[in-house]
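Practice problem 4.
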């Protein structure tokens, strides 16, 4: 079986992604998670240039990594300097890692226009840098920056840079598509040609500017590379790096290459989402393999087929990567979707075709008005049970009023007054809030706390508003989504109205009633 080395550069290349900034603590958390996944190499950063990275390497020494080797990253020595005097190389040694990756120029355009040195001087810089690090007992990987562009522009010189690294004692030659513009067929052909003229094992480092980074990485492996570099979730500068999550999925499940264990594979979704959380970036719903929508089915025809045989519309079993199938209910749904959703809610509709049709008709009408139930499954569950008369409201609204007051030079204040009926009792209460929705939420809880004390463990975690028809201006209908959470779960609810306060109230009520329904099942 082919052995492939996975090399993660999330902590260095991924940190160059717009909107991502790691603390040392963040980097240590991600490093630990990557080790659990079974990543062979973890590139920690560029010590000596970045003080934060130097601190990371110092703290990482206390880590006992079970599966991974930590790698320091830097460049070849500066022009017209000696290796033993070079600050970059000294910084790499100070990181005290066994493995070091250095990059050098392989494109003659860069040598002339960026380094502004003689082509032979660049070869000297590559060779002497690697020899110096080797003399200190380090294992050196050489990243041939801009290799594919360089090879297309000047094949002979690009190969000479690899030969210089090889002769100096590098352990791996990594071919980089730094601009991310090389076509997959070119990547395959060039690697096959290079493999015929160098002795060392090859690696691939692809960027995603043409949306081909994963394909190019897989093609690199098929052409003979044994070493693959990338970032988790494809984070990186510009359009990002090759997404290691997709690379792992394709290598393991499509090519049968045992790059991570079966157990680690089942944690892939959790790891991808954990790292997104640490990065403070939302994981894209449509991200292959691990996204929330990766195995989501909406069209009635698709759902009908999936329920008969999942292979009809799923390229892999989602459970193999720790993800799960989702059947979305919308105006595009058919009878099969409704039946399956009811089954998931412990409701049997199989013998009652009339009710499933009624539910579908109600859903279609509401979605026509602006509801979007695939984004608010808690509201969907309540709706289905209400239509089926399997749900009795825990309370009912008599009336509410919201007052917003702004005095000259003062803070804007919101006050909500609510009158509710719980059973035969009337509860009338008021509460202040930072805004009208916060005031309503506070007043609602205050009114219900003596009847349902378990609401104290629930809180709102997100609030989103979308204008449904911008042309209507301030009179436009809005959709409000609210995310709520307790000790065990989180859930989304929704409201739609021309009045944002009314839409918010609908979502708030569903949020509270879902919590009460959920707890009543225990």
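Answer key:
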């Amino acid at each position: 079986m082919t052995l492939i080395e996975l090399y993660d550069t999330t902590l260095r290349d991924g940190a160059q992604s717009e909107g991502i900034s790691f603390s040392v603590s963040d980097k240590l958390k991600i490093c630990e998670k990557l080790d659990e996944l079974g990543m062979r190499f973890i590139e920690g950063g560029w010590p000596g240039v970045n003080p934060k990275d130097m601190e990371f390497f110092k703290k990482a020494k206390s880590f006992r990594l079970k599966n991974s080797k930590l790698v320091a990253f830097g460049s070849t020595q500066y022009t017209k300097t000696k290796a033993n005097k070079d600050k970059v190389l000294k910084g790499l040694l100070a990181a005290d890692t066994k493995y070091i990756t250095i990059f050098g120029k392989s494109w003659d355009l860069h040598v002339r226009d960026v380094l502004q040195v003689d082509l032979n001087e660049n070869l000297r810089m590559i060779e002497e840098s690697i020899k110096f690090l080797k003399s200190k007992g380090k294992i050196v990987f050489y990243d041939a920056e801009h290799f594919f562009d360089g090879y297309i522009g000047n094949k002979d010189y690009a190969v000479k840079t690899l030969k210089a690294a090889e002769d100096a004692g590098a352990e791996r030659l990594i071919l980089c598509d730094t601009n991310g513009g090389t076509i997959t067929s070119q990547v395959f052909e060039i690697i096959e040609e290079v493999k015929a003229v160098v002795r060392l094992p090859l690696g691939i480092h692809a960027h995603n500017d043409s949306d081909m980074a994963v394909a190019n990485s897989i093609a690199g492996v098929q052409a003979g590379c044994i070493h693959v570099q990338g970032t988790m979730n494809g984070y990186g500068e510009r359009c990002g790096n090759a997404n290691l999550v997709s690379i792992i999925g394709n290598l393991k499940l499509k090519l049968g290459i045992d790059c991570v264990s079966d157990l680690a594979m089942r944690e892939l979704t959790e790891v991808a989402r954990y790292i997104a959380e640490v990065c403070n970036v939302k994981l894209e719903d449509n991200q292959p393999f691990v996204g929330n929508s990766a195995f989501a089915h909406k069209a009635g025809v698709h759902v009908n087929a999936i329920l008969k045989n999942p292979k009809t519309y799923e390229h892999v079993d989602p459970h193999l990567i720790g993800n799960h199938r989702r059947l979305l209910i919308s105006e595009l749904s058919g009878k099969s979707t409704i039946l399956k959703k009811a089954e998931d809610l412990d409701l049997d509709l199989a013998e009652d075709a009339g009710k499933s049709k009624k539910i579908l008709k109600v859903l279609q009408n509401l979605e026509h008005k602006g509801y979007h139930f695939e984004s608010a499954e808690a509201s969907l569950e309540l709706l289905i049970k209400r239509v089926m008369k399997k749900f009795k409201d825990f309370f009912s609204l008599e009336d509410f009023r919201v007052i917003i007051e702004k005095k000259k030079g003062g803070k804007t204040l919101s006050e909500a007054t609510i009158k509710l009926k719980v059973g035969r009792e009337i509860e009338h209460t008021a509460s202040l809030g930072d805004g009208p929705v916060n005031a309503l939420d506070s007043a609602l809880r205050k009114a219900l706390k003596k009847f349902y004390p378990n609401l104290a463990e629930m809180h709102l975690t997100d609030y989103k508003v979308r204008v449904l028809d911008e042309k209507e201006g301030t009179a436009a209908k809005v959709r409000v989504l609210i995310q709520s959470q307790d000790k065990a779960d989180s859930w989304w609810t929704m409201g739609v109205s021309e009045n944002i306060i009314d839409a918010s109230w609908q979502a708030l009520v569903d949020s509270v009633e879902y919590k009460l329904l959920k707890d009543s099942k225990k």
